[in-house]
Amino acid sequence: MTVLPIVSSSSLRRRPTRRVVGIALSRPAVAVSVVFLAAVVIAAVWPTLFTDVDPNGARAEDTLLAPGADHLFGTDQNGRDLFARIVHAARPSLLIGLSASALALVVGATIGVLAAAGGRRTDWTFTRLLDVLMSVPGLLFVLLVIAVRGPGTGTTIVAVALISVPGYARLVRAETLRLRGSAFVEAARALGWSHTRVVLRHVVPNALGPVLVLATIGIGSTIGVVASLSFLGLGPQPPTAEWGSMLSTSRDYFSVAWWPAVFPGLAITLTVLSVTVVGQHLQRRLEGRGPA
Amino acid sequence: MSVARAVATRVGTSLLVVWGAITATFIALHSGKGEVIDAITGSAQVSPAVRQQIIQDYRLDDPLVAQYLHYLWRLLHLDLGQSYSLRMPVARAIGQQIVPTFQLIVVASLLALVVAVVVALLTANRSRRVRGPASSVEVVLVALPSFWFGILLLTFFSFKLQWFPSVGSDGVASIVLPSIALAATPAALLSQVLRHGLERTSEEPFVLTARTRGLSSQAVLVRHVLRHAAAPTITLWGWITGALISGAVVIEQVFSREGLGRLTVTAINGKDFPLVIGIVIVAATFYTVVNTVIDAAYAWIDPRLRVDPPARRPVRTITPTSEVSA
């Protein structure tokens, strides 16, 4: 299979801004996703940029108002502005998803490197351990952890991270094994460097590319899992307002009002979708670069 | 490796996995805050006599290793213990709720497979105008949280159009929306994988051979390519069917259905540890059994896997008779 360069020579000569515009035009879905994600990140960092309405300002006379000019997304059962609540909920939703992915990445990568760089017995033990971890359907494992520790933000992060660990560990292990046989590793060994130094300085940095791509896609699914936990009432507890918990409270009203159920769900779906689209784009680019 | 040895290895691995899951529940039981006995009774009030009984049942006064061996011994005899909140054996509590969940999983799983096969067959090797929208819909469905999709279905079809009941688990009509909600993401995943497989297989020489015999491209796709490309899809299908049990937990909450989902949430909120453990073990076993069966089915679907590795690449001699009879 011939590998075509993603960036053609003519586009390399163009100025960076025009290159960005070029990519945006050729891959509109990626461009829209990047813009949406940027908006979500800005909302998480600086929510008042989007709205100065108080997300907790309950007004009894405004209960369950339909979306309109005053309230873009309508109001919830306590008369709070839904748009403001969704914007302000971006921070906890993103933070929990990111922390869980980061934790899973660090733990998974460590296990993966240890399994691949350690001896055969270490490898066997870790691989079987990962098999077991993957043998229980994800959400049930999360529920087991929650049953032990009781629901809460910290528990959610740990539990959701735990189910993503095997994926990262396996990928890192495979990458490490692949790189271990490559010429530059052999060259580094020939220089008389220690095993640990070769692994840490040469193998790990090279294995990280595909892993970071997996992590990008992983953030998306993590946000989804966290949302479903919140929906069950077993995720982050009040007062942490998070998209999933907003959906959960909307359940009691959606026979009369659709908007409190639709908009938070839309926020989750679009975020997960954008992360996936961007992640897949990165994956294609990484694969397009050919074997490292 | 002979077939018997392969099967033995597979079953051995499965047993190892179930044992690992059981061990995980044992560790979980012992890693909570406070006394183990309080974790077992949960929020239920029990008399001192019952407490004594629990200590004896779980051998809580024995060393940890003895407790663990006894724990395994009881599970080996299919004794999942007592739920002190529900005041009944865990096995019975699960038995009462497993049927609706099982129905939901089976219907959703078959629905996902059928939809995926039909969509993949209709869109494989087609122009961008056909594939583009299909794969866009798939990407969206994969990202869609199933519980939100369920809420949307409920809002539209139950409350607006009133076609389907919004709550309960009685009758055929009540399973339609939950199974659609549960099947959406798996169907999209399966159809992505199957289409990819179909398109890759279509490049193989035997497809061209079949075409030159005068079969239409659709006939080749259904009769030859599909079977060839089925194996990865079937594995994924098995994996997904096992995993649907977690999806069902959430979907049952959305549609207020009876089943393991509701039981799980009740168990966690009531800190009913024996019940949580029972559900996790039953689910892990179900998941492992499904995957083992699927792996065995592999050999049936893909004859190449039945052959011993040295003979895996037989010399393909094309005789005139095989040409005609195929």
Name the features:
heterodimer, A: 292 residues, mainly alpha, 11 helices, 0% strand, B: mainly alpha, flat, disordered C terminus
Mean pLDDT of chain A: 79
Q: Structural class of the helices, strands and pairings of chain A?
A: mainly alpha
Distance linking N and C termini of chain B: 30 Å
Shape of chain A: globular
Q: Distance between termini of chain A? A: 16 Å
Largest sheet features of chain B: 2 strands, antiparallel
Average pLDDT number of chain B: 80
Number of strands of chain A: 0
Regarding quaternary structure, how should these chains be classified? heterodimer
User: What's the gyration radius of chain B in Å?
Assistant: 25 Å
Q: What helical percentage do the residues of chain B reach?
A: over 70%
Shape assignment of chain B: flat
> What is the count of DSSP helices of chain A, taking H or I runs of 4+ residues?
11
Q: Identify low-pLDDT runs of chain B.
A: 309-326
Beta content of chain B: under 5%
The helix/strand series of chain B, from N terminus to C terminus, equals: HHHHEEHHHHHHHHH
The largest sheet of chain B has its strands arranged as 1-2
- Per DSSP E runs of 2 or more residues, the count of β-strands of chain B stands at 2
Please summarize the sheet with the most strands of chain A.
none
Would you mind describing this structure in some detail?
The complex is a heterodimer of chains A (292) and B (326). Chain A has helices spanning 9-13, 16-26, 28-45, 82-117, 120-135, 138-149, 153-180, 183-190, 195-232, 243-250, 259-288. The mean pLDDT of chain A is 79. Chain A is built from eleven helices and no strands. Helix content of chain A is 72%, strand content 0%. By secondary structure, chain A is an all-alpha fold. Residues 309-326 of chain B have low confidence and may be disordered. In chain B, strand 1 (82-83) and strand 2 (88-89) form a beta hairpin. In chain B, helix 5 (90-123) runs parallel beside helix 12, helix 7 crosses helix 10 (217-254) and helix 11 runs antiparallel to helix 12 (273-301). At the A-B interface, helix 5, helix 6, helix 9 and helix 11 of A face helix 1, helix 6, helix 7, helix 10 and helix 11 of B.
